[in-house]
Amino acid sequence: MVFRKSKSDEKEEAIEQIICKRYDNFYRMAYSYVHDEADAFDIVQEGACRAIQRSDSLKDVSYAATWVYRIMLNETFRFLEKKKKETYDELESIEYGRVDEYENIDLKRALDEMEPKDKAVIQLKYFEEYTLSEIAQILEENTSTVKSRLYRGLKKLRIKLEDEE
Amino acid sequence: MNKDQLMDLKNEYEAVCMSDVQLHQLQKKLYETKQKKQGSIGKHRWIPAAAGVVAAALALCILPNCSEVMAKKLGNVPGIGGFFRLVTIREYAYHDGMQEAEVHVEGITADDGSVQGEQAIEAQKEGAGVVNEDMEALTEKWIGKFKKQLKKNGYHGLTVSSEVVCSTGDYFTIKLTAEESQADTYVENHFYTIDLRTGKRMALKDLFDKDSDYVGQISTNIKEQMREQMAENEDISYWLDDKEMPENDFDRISEDEEFYIDDENNLVICFQEGDVAPMYMGSVTFTIPKDVLQDIRVR
After folding, report:
1. Looking at the predicted complex, does its ipTM rise above 0.85?
2. Is A7 within 8 Å of chain B by CB?
3. Where are the alpha helices (H) located in B198-257, listed in sequence order?
4. Contacts of B112 by beta carbon, 8 Å cutoff, 6+ apart
5. A1-98: which CATH number, 3.30.70.100, 3.40.50.720, 1.10.760.10, 1.10.1740.10?
6. The pLDDT of residue A98 is above 50
């Protein structure tokens, strides 16, 4: 028997599928900002709940992937803000205390020192292999803003641009 | 700096993964969130079904049907010993484009024509009556719930059916299954095992020596199987050895856990969805090898 699904069920299901398929991607992304497993997990869990709860506000199922990513990223940024306020007094050393043995230490430090959104663009582009227009959807910015974030980021990493579109 | 270094960094980035415990917790949380959400939708957002929808709806109910014709058509299923026949005890259907229900439940009836003593037939009739009553009550409960949900917005589906899952010379088991769908599908199974020698429904405890710790022995075996399966396949997950939420771990089966006896006389313990494993694992069952229980089994 074929059961027909309502639109809102479809959305929720699409969102759930994305969470179930891409939880590690979200987790990595969060971890790259907070450098702590428990915090990264909290972010993903919180983001996942938010996404399910608000599934009705997703406009179209075809945007589900970037929509969920956006929620996760916002959750991460929110966390960073909160942490910043909490640790205002002990400004030094929070971010790099945990940098493990690490070959590309300069590169990683450069990434960590970037503005969070610039860093997101670099990671989404090169690690997650999203297109610029998808990244624009995730960040809710227009493509040219994303492009300039990318250029600025790469410049900081002192990586030469080859054939970026 | 060059792109190779960026690729190294990518490899390191990708090495970060959620642990199994975290994943397990995430799944649990997702499930809870969905349940909670459905609950709140039910409470605050229901709208009465439109009149047109109701008018177009086709609902039919057939009351328990034990007429000779019907019984002949459905009954005398070979393999249930010739002592019992299947007979339709509840039918219900509803379709209106949004909501759908299909209920067809067969219970059992003692076969008057079989060559047995009158006493045996009486006992079988009584046994069948008890099983049918229980199946009917559960079915009514599901139908009632479905009808209530008709008033609410959104899709609801219900399928209830029954089937003989197993029969040996000594026992046969009829399984009653309800599948309730909303955003998710939830399956609930109930097993009725009839002892052909007495004509009565068997309880789990009837299989074992009175003084035995069958609950403990079965539970230990299930836990072993769970650990083995989880070690073998990382997609398999049970609520066991969970460091984050040990209070949720599977501990013991209940004294009257659902069960049946398979063709090879092994006991099969059947759990409801979500009882001992995340919902995505479905309705899990464990076959307890005969030899594990041979010292305490009396039937």
Report:
1. no
2. no
3. 214-232
4. B121
5. 1.10.1740.10
6. no
